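User: Some background: our group keeps a shared notebook of sequences we're curious about, and every so often someone picks one and asks for a predicted structure to add to the entry. Today it's my turn. The entry only has the sequence so far, pasted here. Could you supply the structure so I can complete it?
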Amino acid sequence: MPQSLRTPPREFRTRDDAIDDSIDVPAAVICATCGDAACTGCEHELSRSGIVAMVAWERSGTPVLSRLWATARATTMTGDAFFELLPDGPIGPALRFALTVELIAALGFVVSAVPFVFLIAPTWLKHIALDGGARDIAMRVGVVGVPSLALLLVAAHAAHGLALEHGARKVGGRRARSRALRFGLYASGWDLVLGPMGAVILAFKEGIGASLRMLALGVGLPGRCTRAFLRGCYGLEGERAERANRSASLAAVLATIVGAFAILAGIVVLVLVTD
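Assistant: Of course. Here's the predicted structure to add to the notebook entry:
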């Protein structure tokens, strides 16, 4: 058989198992800036060697929930490859993704908490169910609390992404603010897949074993994905990447604490005004 028709050597085969199908990489790899197939990356081109990847959520022609789940699953189960190849692009789609998944995740947390509340304080829960005034307050708190929790989580993820940009620039990384913000917003997918709602969806679609494996996969997931993003976007590895990651984590924690106090204050005010 001619050499050209033989199976390509192992080192030249495509690793289809490494990247989830929620990112498309075109077969013809050309620089998105200059159009040269031999280009190793223009100065302001943020894609790797000119490769333009597309996130499943940003595709058209497929059902919204399918795109949502495919992207959230990819950020978690193949997060290293997903975030290393995450391209620059518009903020709007990433923000809509983050808001949607966090609303679903927040609702899942609230619903899953009800059985635990019933076990711990059944009398109190019964009082809320039977008393009209208490039920009205609980409904108001839920209507405000669930979206507020979702907004808090989105803000924390966005703060983490922007803090990564700041930390990367401090250690010599190039400017990539919009891409860093997209990283933070798409990282919201972790909260859906690793939350109660994600466990149910995984068990239904892929079996209980997939849900159990996800628990182990979630350990250290943010750090792995962050390091992959710093490597793919800024070319940072080793100590420089760790320094950028530490400063970003601190900013995300501070944003979460401030937001949590704001939400609690708002709920207290709502209860007092309703009372």
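Suggested note for the entry: Residues 63-274 form one domain. The longest helix spans residues 132-170.
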